[in-house]
C-alpha cells in the first residue's frame, strides 16, 4: 500500500483545524473524500479544503473504491456502527474519542477488529504532542523520584471555553455523547494517565447533576489504583464560577512534582531545589503527529499508537466513574 487514501465521516468542527488538513500534510497520505449528512455543509467543506469528493451518505463514502482508510469524526453515538461497517468493508479506521458511548460498545469494536484482522486506532492524539512526550521523558528519567500520587482538577463553568460551540450542543446530550463535558474532555486526561503509568488495578467513582442545567451529569469524581501502586484522584466539575476555573494535573513523587494543564501549553516541575517552567507551541494541526504515526502503522512500519484494547480500559474507567453498569 503506497498511499493511505482517506475518507472522513463527519466533517464537523474538529476536522476544520485540529485534524482534517493534516491528512494531506503527512507523507504517504491523501484526503480524497468527506461526508456529512447535510449535503450543503459537506460540499462547502470539500470546496474550502480542496477535497475532490464529498458525500451526504456514509455508505457511499465507504463504497468509494479509491478509499482505503476512514476517519470517523461524528458524535460518539454513531462511532460503533460506522466502525463496524468500515471494518467489514476492509478499511483501516481512525476513530475519534471517546471511542464509543460506553465500554460495552468499545468491546464490540475490539471484537470486530479481531474478527476482521483489521487495523483501528483511537484518537488519543496527545500521546504524540511534544508537551506530553516531554512529560513522559521527565518521568522516564525519574526527575521527581518514585511517583506516589496523581491529582487532577478540571473545574469549568457551565459553558467551558475549552469546548467547541455548536448550535445543538450535542456534548451535553447523553444519548449522543455518552454523558456530558466529562465524556468530551476526560478521555484525553485519563488516557495520558494510562499512557504514563500503565494498567489500573482498581477504579471507582460517582457522578451527579448538581446544577440540572442540562440532561447530563456535571460533576464527576474518580479514583484509580494502578498496578504499580500509584494512586490517582480526579475531580471534574462543570458548574463553577468563571473565576474558579481550573485545569491542573499534578504528578507528585518522592523528590519533586510535575504540574501541567491538559488543555494548556506549559509544564512546571521541580526536583529537590531545581525549579523549571517549560512552555510549548502546539502543532498547527494538533492531531498531525498522531496521524503521521497512524499512516506509518497502516503501512506496517510502526506499532499501533493507540489500540482499541487500551480504549476499552479507558471506557471501563469512565463507566465506573459515572455509575454505568
Describe this structure in words.
Helix 4 runs parallel beside helix 5 and helix 5 runs antiparallel to helix 10. This protein is α/β, with parallel strands linked by helices. The protein folds into 2 domains: 138 residues, Rossmann fold; 153 residues, Dihydrodipicolinate Reductase, domain 2 (2-Layer Sandwich), CATH 3.30.360. The mean pLDDT is 96. The longest helix is centred in the middle third of the chain and has 17 residues. The strands form 2 sheets. An 8-stranded mixed sheet has the order 8-9-10-7-11-12-13-14, covered by helices on one side. The protein has a 6-stranded parallel sheet with strand order 3-2-1-4-5-6, with helices on both faces. 44% of the residues are buried. It contains 10 helices and 14 strands. Keywords: Oxidoreductase. This is Gfo/Idh/MocA family oxidoreductase. It comes from Mucilaginibacter defluvii. InterPro entries: Gfo/Idh/MocA-like_OxRdtase_N, Gfo/Idh/MocA_oxidrdct_glycsds, GFO_IDH_MocA-like_dom, NAD(P)-bd_dom_sf.
